[in-house]
Amino acid sequence: MTPSLNHDHEGYERNHYNNKANNEPTQHHVEEDDESNGSITMSPSMATKGPAADGSDPYYTEGWHNPGWLSTVSLFLVSFGVVGFMFSWGAFQHCYLEHVYGGQTDSFHIAFVGTIAYMLSTSLGLPMGYIIYYIGYRRTMMIGTVLCPLALFLASIANELWQTALSHGVMYGIGASFCVSATFVLPSQWFIKRRSLANGIGNMGVPVGGICFSPLTQYLLDTLGHRNALRTMACILFVVFTLATILIRARYPPKPPQYRAGADDYEQDKKANTRSPLLSTPFILFLVFLALAPFGYLIPFYLMPTYATQVLGASGSLGAAMVSVASASNCISRLVWGFAADRYGNMNTLIFTTGVSGM
C-alpha cells in the first residue's frame, strides 16, 4: 500500500520553469473548491484565462489574491492556539504542584504532563500523513478541533495525576497533532518566492499565543481556579480552531492510497524507497538537528514561570510576564528571519540563528 498525491509538487515547479524558459504558458488555475477536504484543484482547460496565462507566476499570483494566504492565516490560528497554549504550561504546572496535587507528586513528575503534550503534537506526523491521505486536510483539522477542547474539559474534572496526564497531556497532544499536521504544510504549497515569509507569518502565531495565553492563564487560575480556567481555555481554543478549519485551502489535494499487490509493483516500490531522499545522510543529519534544537529553545518557555516562582521567589504573574516578553521578541524575529530566509537562503539563515542562540 503506497500513498500518492494528485500532483508532484517539485515536478510541477520544475516544469513551470522549463515552460517559462521556452516561453510556454504554465497551465494552472482554480477550478473548484472541494469543501470536504479543503483543497483547490487546478484545471488545464482554464490556461487561457486569469492573471497567470503568460506563465509569469508559478501560482498565478503570490500577491494578496493568492488563496494560500487563507492557509497562512489558518496556520497562524493553529500555532496560536496549540503552541501558544502550551507555553502557558508553566503556570499550570505551578498550580498543579502547589494547589491541586500538593504533597502527592513533585515537579519532576508533573513536568511530564506538559512535555508529553508537546512531544505528541510533533511526533505523530507519519500516521497523520496517512490520515490526511484518507480524509483530507479539513476533516483532519475537524478531529483536532474536537479533541483539544474535549481534552481540557476532561482535565477540568480530573482528580488524580494520571487522569490529568491522560487528558491534559496525551489527549491534548494527539488533538494538537491533528491540527498541526493539517495546516503546517499548506502555505508552502502556494508560494515559491515568498514561501519563507508566508511560513514565518503563519508560525508567528506561536509567540503571539505565548504573549496572550501566559498572562491570561495566570489571571484565570488566580480568579476562577484551575477547573474553570481549563474550561474557559477549551472554549477559546474551540472558537480559534473552528475558524482555522473554515480557512483551510490546499493546493494539492490528497489522494487515497492505492492497493497494489503485484510482485512487480512491490519491487518498484522497494527500489523507489531505497532511493528516497529520506534515507540520505544530509536529511538524517537535519532530523538530528531538529531533535536537538528544541532543548535550547522550548525548555525556557515551558519552565520560566516555575523557575520564577520556585527559584527566584517571584509571583506567578511575573513568571507569566517573562514568557510574554520572550514571546514578543520571538514574534518580531519570525517575520525578520522569514524575510531573510527568502533573500539569503533557508539553511544559511538557520545556521546563523541557531549559532547566535547557542552563544
From TrEMBL:
**Membrane topology category:** Multi-pass membrane protein
Q: Which residues cross the membrane?
A: 69-90, 110-133, 140-159, 165-185, 197-217, 229-250, 278-299, 311-337
Polar residues compositional bias: what residue ranges?
A: 37-46
GO terms under cellular component:
membrane
Main subcellular location of this protein, as a coarse class: membrane
What's the superkingdom here?
Eukaryota
Q: Which UniProt keywords apply?
A: Membrane, Transmembrane, Transmembrane helix
| Region (Disordered), start-end ranges | 1-54
> Which GO terms label this protein's molecular function in UniProt?
transmembrane transporter activity
Domain Major facilitator superfamily (MFS) profile stretches: 74-359
Please list the residue ranges that the record marks as compositionally biased, kind Basic and acidic residues: 1-16
Q: Where in the cell is it found?
A: Membrane
One Pfam family named in its UniProt record: MFS_1
Under PANTHER family, the record lists: EG:103B4.3 PROTEIN-RELATED, MONOCARBOXYLATE TRANSPORTER
What the record says about family reads: Belongs to the major facilitator superfamily. Monocarboxylate porter (TC 2.A.1.13) family.
Name of protein: Major facilitator superfamily (MFS) profile domain-containing protein
Species of provenance: Lichtheimia corymbifera JMRC:FSU:9682
